[in-house]
Structure formats: C-alpha cells, structure tokens
Amino acid sequence: MTDLGGPGDHRARGPGDGPEAVASQIADAVESLTALWSVAAQEASLRLSLHQLRALRTVQATPGLNLTTLAEGLDIGLPTASRLCDRLAAAGLLERVPHPDTRREVQLWLTTHGRHVLGEVAGRRAQALAAALAAMEPAERAALRRGLRGFLTAQGKVVPGVDGIE
User: 9 in a domain, yes or no?
Assistant: First the structure.
C-alpha cells in the first residue's frame, strides 16, 4: 500500500511503495479519472470528442492563435487540424477570423456558444470529481491533496497561491 501519511509517518514501506509501483497505481487512477471526465463531457448538451474538447480548450487558453500553432499544440497534422476546426466552426463553437496584419493567416476564436459549452463540460467534470472525492474519507482527501502538492512540487509546477493546491 502507498504511504500517504506524509513526512511524519514512519511506517515500514512495502515493495508496493516504490516509485514504479506508485507510478502504476497513479496510471490506473488517471485512467479512471479520464473515464470519469469523458462520461461527464458526454453528458453535456453538445457531445464533443476528446480531440474537439482539447482544441477548444487550447483556443480558450490562447485566443487568436493560428491553425499551425493549434496543430502543434495538439500534436496533429495541419490538414487534420483544419478539418477539426471546420467541424467546430460548423457547430458554431469556433470562429476563423482573418489576421489583421497577414492576409494568409487565420486566427481562431471561441464563439459565445463555444465558451458556454466548455463551461458546461467543466462544470459537469467538477461535479463528477467532487462526487468521487465526497465518497472518500476526509483523511484520504487530505492525503491525496498532500500527495498532489508533493508531486507538483517535484515536477516544478507549483506556484504558491496559483496552483489551487495549498
């Protein structure tokens, strides 16, 4: 079993507590979380594929980006990104706007409907995650929080007061 007791917990560690074993357990948990999020997204008023959601979230994070930047960010080819954007634009979620300085370049922007759909998906995902966390014991939630903080710190991703895990 994984040692979730924190720095003050000096219980003996078993063979399942090494980095490889814990990595495997985390991979299993991530798969479960991905499934939970996918189901929550599919319950939204507009069903989107994970690629479509990733594209919309990328445009949300970087409004006005061009198609090449989107394709690179999603690690897909330019023709695939173009078709993806065509479908999102046809659904009224994304808008292609000519770049003000470059005639050949197109900027990508979320529509109001696109922002609404992303908000709905995010809300459903948060509700599904909160339901799973509510089923845990308070000590387990606290241990998970400490573990996530330690993981993010080890990855150099924590910015005090910004990361949401305090």
Answer: no
For the whole prediction, is pTM greater than 0.90?
no
Residue pair 63/95 in contact (Cβ under 8 Å)? The answer is: no
pLDDT at 3 over 80: no
Q: What is the CATH number of the domain that holds 132?
A: 1.10.10.10
Residue 18's pLDDT is 86
By the 8 A CB rule, do 40 and 124 touch? yes
Element (H, E) at 146: helix 138-154
What average pLDDT score do residues 86-95 get? 96
Does any domain span residue 153?
Answer: no
The residues facing 108 across adjacent strands are 96
Asked if the structure places residue 68 within a domain, the reply is yes
Across the chain, which distance is largest between two alpha carbons, in Å? 66
